[in-house]
Amino acid sequence: MPALKVYAWFLLKRLGLTVLTLWGLATLVFLMIKLMPGDEAQMAAGADASAAQVEAMRIRLGLDAPLVAQYLRFLLRVAQGDFGTSIVTLQPVMSDLGKVLPSTLELVVVAMLINLSVAIPAGIVAAYRQGGAFDSLCRAAAVTLGGMPAFWLALVLQFLLGRVWRVVPISGQVSFGMGSPVVTGAPSLDALLAFNGAGFLNALWHLALPAAVLAALFSTQVFRTLRASLLGVLRSDFVMAVRAKGASARRMLTDHALPNSLNPVLTLAGTQAGAMIGSAVLVETVFARKGIGAYMFNAVAQKDTFAVLGSVMFIGTVVCLVNLAVDVMQLVLDPRIRSAQFGSQH
Amino acid sequence: MSAPAVSVRAPRAGLGLSAFEASVIGLVVLLLAVAVVGPLVAPESVYRSDIANALLPPGAGHWFGTDDQGRDVFWRLVVGARTTLLSAFLVVTLYSLIGVAVATIGAAGPRWLDETLMRITDIGLALPGMVVALGFAAAMGPSLRSAIIAMAITGWPITARLLRGIMRQTMEAPFVAGARALGVSRWRLMTCHVLPNSLDVLIVKWAGDVGTTVLVLASLSFIGVGAQPPSAEWGATIAGARGYVSTAWWTVVMPGAAVAITSIAFGLLGEIIQVRRDPSLRGN
Lengths: 346, 284
Known about the structure:
- The complex is a heterodimer.
- Chain A is mainly α.
- Chain A is built from 15 helices and no strands.
- Chain A has one domain: MetI-like (MetI-like fold), CATH 1.10.3720.10.
- In chain A, helix 5 crosses helix 9 and helix 8 crosses helix 9.
- Chain A is globular, with a radius of gyration of 24 Å.
- Chain B has a single domain, classed as MetI-like (MetI-like fold, Orthogonal Bundle), CATH 1.10.3720.10.
- At the A-B interface, helix 1, helix 6, helix 7, helix 9 and helix 12 of A face helix 3, helix 4, helix 8 and helix 10 of B.
- Chain A: Keywords: Cell membrane, Membrane, Transmembrane, Transmembrane helix, Transport.
- Chain A: Belongs to the binding-protein-dependent transport system permease family.
- Chain A: This is ABC transporter permease.
């Protein structure tokens, strides 16, 4: 089978799974709406709406129709990108979230960079010197970090590093007067677009601690996965053959063992990218950052349930799309996935 | 046939626990004991506010200091241990039951049902669990009960997927072929023979699951869709004390440390059980 056809078939299958997942997500959110106690029309119209207004809302939302019709109508609305309306901002949830999404993505990208650049070297050294002092230290750190609540770590580090030792800003996205005109909504990117070097560094400085906390939450998994995978590869026969042929330890690691053990890490990092977007809800408010997590957090506090459920729909959708993008990227990057998918054709 | 000439190391005395394993198990037992006994021995004052003694630093009178209401932080944690651990056990039990049901029905039912259930499981695995749980809890009205139900309905896919895989392996065992030859019905085969011989995997998994559940539960409470103040649940306690981190660090640090220690203890217990069951994992 020609390669192009192979790609197309994979893409089609993967897209099908994404559509199925989004449908499942929408069904869950519909269920959530139906689980809400009280009158849906009353809630959508607001607590102090008149009886006539509530009735008008009931008809507008189609709540007088049978449940199946309501469900189909809901799916249609979601497919058109209508994720409901916030009763606080009175704006569609989609447009509210679209504005703050770049800020969350900025946080997630920096967190992912920190995550991989700490966990991968640590995993390599720990596996190479298995049982050594560094290995034991890293494993103890991984267990400890993995058990800490992220929001608590954020609060404590914010207090220590921001208030006591004053090495990072306590909160916010950019210092007063250092901001650039908003183009994308991600302060670091906006600074770059305005050729504002100082503003860019300032935005990164504000990002450092929130991103590090988010990274800490995920780096323990990367460390463990890489360590276990590399240990497996280091025990395999071909590594012994490489060493027997006289390759240095460094060359054996970088040219032979590592490329063969990174695959599970890439798969994990892909799923983590999506999960990080969801975990932003634990970090963003602590540091008073804008973002979809902070939006959802505030919606919970203001009892704006429609905005919460719209956010669930939105975050779920973004996670699905990120996972899709990661899978496609892996297909392009790693020939072994191609052959695993279409084993007989190679 | 003569016995193979392999020297077998004599088993260590007793359970053969290393010092590390013994201390982890000791810690877990201590946490469970606190959860059981704690609320019975705690002084009545943990439920009352005493503004005159608010935000006292840790000292002889109050080991972990007092919170903004003048309540003793240590005793609040002791009381909250029951809420926190009981909720986590409940969540893990509930979603394990759902997972077992899904896997068994899939294994025993017709092919199309199995396929459908596994596709639904896939969808569940592809979605961000905590965010969906947050949505369910917010929709049902924020409370500890809502959070527990929400986590139960979002937590089962991993169990279902894992168990379904193990059941497929168990199906290969000779005794299954034997039962089949005796004319045992498919449903009976699955529930009475294959399932009991596959449940091992859940026993290994539960301790680690409790560890992560404690974390997620605390997170949901922090976000505001779980336990509500004045509940002594640890996540809600941190949320309530959030504003005092710079003036009275102990009100935030102590409950967070309690969450971390509990989560780490159960996580390590899970690993110990896993290694004991499959010693080839040792060192990994």
